[in-house]
Amino acid sequence: MTLLIKNVKAIDPRHKLSDGVDVFVRDGKIAKVGKQLDVKADETLDGKGQTLVPGFIDLHVHFREPGGGHKETVATGARAALKGGFVGAVSMPNTQPAADNAAIVEFILKRAREAEFNIFPCGALSKGREGKEISAMLELKNAGCVAVSDDGNYLRNPLVARRAFEYASQVGLIVMSHVEIPELTKGGVMNEGYVSTVMGLKGMPAVSEVIAVATDIELAKMTEARLHISHLSSGAALEKIKRARSEGLQITCEVTPHHLALTENALKTYDTNFKMNPPLRTEEDRQAMLQGVLDGSIDVIATDHAPHQFEEKDQEFELAPFGVIGLETAFAVSYTELSQKAGPAALEILIDRMAITPANILGLGQFNEIAEGSAANFTLLDLNAKWTISKEDFASKSKNSCFLGREVRGRVVATVCNGKLYRWNTHPVASGAVTVQSGCHSGEGRNLSAKGGLAFGGKTSKQDASLRWHDTHPERLPGATPL
Ligand SMILES: [Zn+2]
Ligand SMILES: [Zn+2]
Q: Where are the alpha helices (DSSP H) in 60-175?
């Protein structure tokens, strides 16, 4: 299978690339990058007006399998990721049962292979994520884990935490920490402050995050664990991280697009799609998060993609589960927010925070470089497209987005993952806006989903309209429509 992207603006800050290059992919690798390549390919794509960037890697997703397949499967999660321009993701271990042993990790990796997607599993930090006994980390590492976390829970017992950090350090696993002091947040549903008081809802104070970050920093100093702070939400906690880094600690952190774009004020609608943990905080915190992404003190943008079904979210605020989906909106939301602050520089910053730094943290080498010999994992963007985020567009099995109806700029038009091309259909509508519809095709007719979903019969034609497809499952995979 060969693929040629012609005349595209390619950007990879790790390499000097000129405007208007051709990128030739053969057998899953970038075989050639250059001006007007004289090569024949099975499939050719005109990249004019588009920007080709390293494929994104999400350090924090919940794909729910095993145990939560009604919310998301690895296959549907992978599809949502691909549609968002992601070529890899770190899966969190709070599945049912928890990913605290090799069998579960191997199952997730098998599902990932079936979905033709790159999952880097994060195993549990403690057995069953219960915080009582450390997990079998060597077994997890040998099964393919890159990190350990009790995400959803914070490992509260400092002695167990110390042992877990020590073991992770010895085994060479990153500790990804969900930073929250449960005694301070118990029963809380949103940020604690003026807005929660006015709304009469129980709050979760930012100091909970600050104390947990400070504790983990001290444990990381003591144990030499490689610490990565998940979904940072408060400016005060970021200050702790900056201080630790200035003192020489190797520590990284991530922020979600929703913490860059929204504040606690969004909850005034009582819409449970704004209920997430950590909660949306103040405008001051949001500005601190944006500034952190711009100046690099926040290393990574990760989605914390947390699918829940409509019925689960559609209940009283106190009862609805925490979490929102985010893979398919991450780039556009982040690009829209950062462009307002940094102008054209926003793109290179985003490439770093969404593609290069995540690859570096995972030690992935040439996984997503735009260079000859690298694996073909890249994303094609239309930076000028304006579109409105709509429920109908999601490939994810769940629709619990906090950005429904939001106008954003910048779209993923195609993703190449492990050398395979996925094109996302777009068509302009009135008022100059663009809505997203997705479809997908590869060079060969093949079944893309592990269980049910879509099968693309017939050969791919250069004419999108002639692309043949059909359902193999009565319940069509959401978000996928014929090109
Ligand atoms: Zn978490
Ligand atoms: Zn999470």
A: 74-83, 102-114, 137-143, 158-171
Q: What ligand is nearest to the CA atom of residue 277?
A: 1
Kindly list the domain boundaries of the chain, sorted by start residue: 53-368
Q: Give dist(CA 325, CA 323) in Å, integer.
A: 7
Give the number of the ligand closest to the Cα of residue 179. Answer: 1
What are the residues facing 232 on neighbouring strands?
none
* Cα-to-centroid distance, 167 and ligand 1 (Å): 21
Q: 217: closest CA among 175, 254, 160, 182? A: 175
Buried b (16+ CB within 10 A) or exposed e, 413-450: bbbbbebbbbbbbbeeeeeeebebbbbbbbbeeeebbb
Ligand having the closest approach to the CA of 62 = 2
* Strands 147-149 and 203-204, sheet pairing: unpaired
Residue 369, both tokens: 């470089």
Q: Give the SS3 label for residue 447.
A: strand
Rounded-to-integer distance, Cα 348 and Cα 248, Å: 26
Cα of 139 vs centre of ligand 2, distance in Å, is 23
Dump pLDDT digits (tens) for 238-296: 999 999 999 999 999 999 999 999 999 999 999 999 999 999 999 999 999 999 999 99
Ligand 2 centre to CA of 10 (Å) is: 32
What are the residues whose beta carbon lies below 5 Å from ligand 1 (ion)?
A: 151, 178
List pLDDT tens digits, range 378-429. Answer: 999 999 999 999 999 999 999 999 999 999 999 999 999 999 999 997 644 3
Q: How many helices (H) and strands (E) does the chain have?
A: 14, 22
Q: What is the pTM of this model?
A: 0.89
Residue type, 37: L
Q: So which residues are the catalytic ones?
A: 304
Task: For 333-382, give the DSSP string.
Answer: HHHHHHHHHHTTHHHHHHHIIIIIHHHHHTT-GGGG-SSTTSB--EEEEE
**How many Å separate Cα 71 from the centre of its chain?**
17
Are 75 and 450 in contact by the 8 Å Cβ rule? The answer is yes
* Half-sphere exposure of residue 30: CA atoms within 13 angstroms, side-chain side: 26
The domain 53-368 is placed in CATH, from the list 3.40.50.300, 3.20.20.140, 3.40.50.880, 3.40.50.11720, at 3.20.20.140
* 112 touches 416 (CB < 8 A): no
Cα 177 to averaged position of ligand 1 atoms, centre (Å): 8
CA distance 221 to 227: 9
C-alpha 204/C-alpha 11 separation (Å) is 41
Measured from the Cβ of residue 468, the count of other Cβ atoms closer than 10 Å reads: 13
